[in-house]
Amino acid sequence: MSICYLNGDYLNIEEAKISPLDRGFIFGDSIYEVIACYDKKPFKLSPHIERLLKNLESIKINLELTELNLSDIINQVIHENNSKNQVIYLQISRGPEKIRDHTPQDYPTPTIFVSSFPMKVLPKKEIEPIEVIMQDDFRWRKSSIKATSLLASIMYKIEAKEKNVSEVILHEKGLITEGSVSNVFCVKNKVIKTPSLEANILPGITRETLIDIIKKSSYELIETDISIEELLASDEVWISNTTKGVVPVSKIDNQAIVNRQQEEIFNEILELFMTEIQADKNQ
Ligand code: PDD
Predict the structure, then answer these.
(1) Are 241 and 206 in contact (CB under 8 A)?
(2) Which of 107, 127, 179, 271 has its CA 20 to 30 A from that of 167?
(3) Could you give the C-alpha distances from 143 to 13, 119, 201, 237, in angstroms and in order?
(4) How far is the CA of 63 from the centre of ligand 1 (A)?
(5) In a mutational test of the pocket of ligand 1, which residue from 30, 31, 34, 277 has the highest number of ligand atoms less than 8 Å from its CB?
(6) Å from CA of 106 to ligand 1 middle
(7) Is 142 assigned a catalytic role?
């Protein structure tokens, strides 16, 4: 049984109810965050809340919420649930209305929902490289907003499941954007590249963390265009997100990554990422 937060109350998830006229349900008129929690401590909480507050502003949901209120709620949900390692899912919709109308009323009351799921954290040696496919990026032009209207990602994930692979790497006009639920990194001749935020991608918190880590390491990191051909010719390809951390890719469209036997740089960066998790816990 897991305990969630809904509009001021902490409840068993089975008892949490919202109106079918909630704009989040009817229109996908809502935004969300997914936050990893290690040993009961949320990882990179401030950047997650900052992104959420920015997204609320972008879609004009007016809420008197501060970073403090939100982190109190998140920490309470973590405390109410048993698992040491949790995935915190936080969603804010514009709220319920009496009639379905695309134009929001002036003051609907936003719905705030925070829930927790146990998170599986794999020891380093058990992180298995994944196989992926590539697809044309047919999503909307504002992928920087972490919106719950995720039909495109669901379609990609169904395709991935049918092809027995774990993720879909997207491209637009021959250039890599991101994964359906992740950001993408590649390595060639010891230089690490990731698409820049101009590429209609989500500014992933894990991406940002990895960029900071790499910049402090001996490796060069470039945020730049990556062509499909360049990705396929990489020595290493990784994907990153909150729930999986950073994971190496073994095959793209059934084609093996050229030099992946070593995954040399991946292993070093993963080590640094794990150190960062420990450091963040102690803050
Ligand atoms: N998704 N890009 C997309 C399209 C994503 O959906 C995600 C994460 C990321 C990585 O962002 P972050 O490092 O902040 O998790 C990039 C989450 C995990 C989800 O929808 O469940």
Answers:
(1) yes
(2) 271
(3) 29, 25, 5, 22
(4) 24
(5) 34
(6) 31
(7) no
Substitution candidate for ligand 1 out of 180, 202, 208 with most atoms within 8 A of CB: 202
Ligand 1 mean position, distance from CA 98 (Å): 32
Same domain, 106 and 137: no
Q: Whose CA is nearest to atom 3 of ligand 1?
A: 181
Residues 59, 194, 132, 233, CA torsion sign: positive
Q: Is residue 123 part of a domain?
A: no
CA distance 238 to 281: 24
One domain for residues 140 and 70: no
Domain count, the chain: 2
Q: What is the domain range of residue 96? A: 3-118
Amino acid type, 279: A
146, 163, 173, 251: the active-site residue: 146
For residue 33, how far is its CA from the centre of ligand 1 (angstroms)? 8
What residues contact residue 83 under an 8 Å CB cut-off, 6+ apart? 116, 118, 119
pLDDT tens across 190-237, in order? 999 999 999 999 999 999 999 999 999 999 999 999 999 999 999 999
